Amino acid sequence: MNRDQDKRLRCKVTVRMMTDEKAFGPGVAELLSGVRRTGSLQGAAQAMHMSYSKAWTVVRAAEEIWGFPLTERQAGGSHGGHSRLTKAAEILLQRYEKLEEKVNETARQEFERSFNPGEITRLKELGHETT
C-alpha cells in the first residue's frame, strides 16, 4: 500500500453488543472464530497473541452474560484436548458477523455520501472562511 492510500479517509465502525458491560464484540468474535478454525481455545488464544487464561476469562464472561455455553471442551489426555463451538455459539457468531457486515455497509455508504472527494474539496474551501 502506498502512502497516498494510507492517508485516504475511510470509515471504521465497531459493533459491540452490550448490557451494562460488553456482551459480544470483535474480540469475542475473533476468539470464537479461532476456536472454530484451530479446534482449541489455546490455539485461538495463541493466534491472537493472548494468554490462555485471558481467553478463558473472556469466554467465561461471555457465557455468563449470554446464559449458555459457547464452547464444548474435551480435556487433554494422550492426544491433547480440543474445543468446538456449541450450536448456539455458531448461530450467535454468524448473526454477529451478518450484523457487522450490514452496519459497515451502511456506514460506508453514508461516509461516501458525506465525505466523498467533492465534499472534502468543499470543506477545504470553507476551511479558510470564518462565520
TrEMBL record:
Which superkingdom? Bacteria
Q: Which residues form the HTH lysR-type domain?
A: 33-90
* GO molecular-function terms, A-Z: DNA-binding transcription factor activity
Report which residue ranges the record marks as coiled coil: 82-109
Q: Which InterPro entries match?
A: LysR_HTH_N, Molybdate_resp_trans_reg, WH-like_DNA-bd_sf, WH_DNA-bd_sf
Listed A to Z, the keywords are:
Coiled coil
Q: Which Pfam families match?
A: HTH_1
Asked if the keyword Glycoprotein belongs to this entry, the reply reads no
Question: What SUPFAM superfamilies does UniProt report for this protein, alphabetically?
Answer: Winged helix' DNA-binding domain
Know the name of this protein?
A: LysR family transcriptional regulator
Organism of this sequence: Megasphaera hexanoica
